[in-house]
Amino acid sequence: MTPCQRILVPLDGSSLAERAIPPAIALAQAFAAAEPCELHILRVVPPIMVALDPTLYTETIHLGEEESKSYLETVAIEYEDSGVPIITAAETGSVAETIVNYAQENKTDLIVISSHGRSGVSRWVYGSVTDKVLRQSCCATLIIREQIEQIAGKFKKIVVCLDGSQLAEQVLETALSLAQCSQAEIILLRIVEPASLLFDMETADQVQESVNALERGEAEAYLNNLMQTLPQTPGILTAHTLMGPPADTIIDFAKEEQVDLIAMSSHGRSGISRWVYGSVTEKVMRGAACATLIMHEQEP
Fold first, then answer.
1. Which tens digits make up the pLDDT trace of 191-227?
2. Which of 2, 6, 55, 68 stands the most exposed, by the fewest C-beta atoms within 10 Å?
3. CATH number of the domain within which 169 lies
């Protein structure tokens, strides 16, 4: 299991943002079976974007920080019986950048964040914050959807989306660790996008059928070979190859199979028979009805 020593949950003071806490607690408890795992809860006080007297500005920011500390202490007390060490932090600055910097400075292994919070006075426009954190984060990001039922913590069925590239495979280790600590079923999914060829209709149908068959055969062989290299997991491990538009096919498959977590890398290797993966990831993140785990591209 990949060690996870620190999980970060950014909050904005809303109940929607707090939906990320229970799964983060459950994951920290599971990871602690291997080694201690801390939960950091962070609230960022954004700068005031109106002209104020310097003294009034300083006092207002100070009040915001004190209110944030009090709020975080209340949240920490609510979960003090979980057995997970909880560290609270209130900082001032640009919200997304402060979250990313905090994660880097504290060597965070996983960020768990709600896809939306409640915008308003003293609260973030949370969707845009999540997008920015996802694009800039140096670690895996678990996004909890705001429209799904409250997640108790552990996942039952995880689908890992692959495109045949090593970049896409970077999510595997983290996904397998989550599956192991949750005793979850894990599905390796490879999507083959139908060939689009410029021939006359009859020739195009024949050639397209042959190309699609070759692509599907290559995808199935890839998944079979990959499964042979993976460590044993407590849950069921299966592989599926489907044909269709990548993002829509992943979303539909997750819905049909009642998947509660989709795991994928932020980028794969684009090219012949491979996805332009960044756009696929973004479409899945926005369209899926379940939680999504996004692994940011790591340097070799």
1. 988 876 445 555 566 777 788 888 899 999 999 999 9
2. 55
3. 3.40.50.620
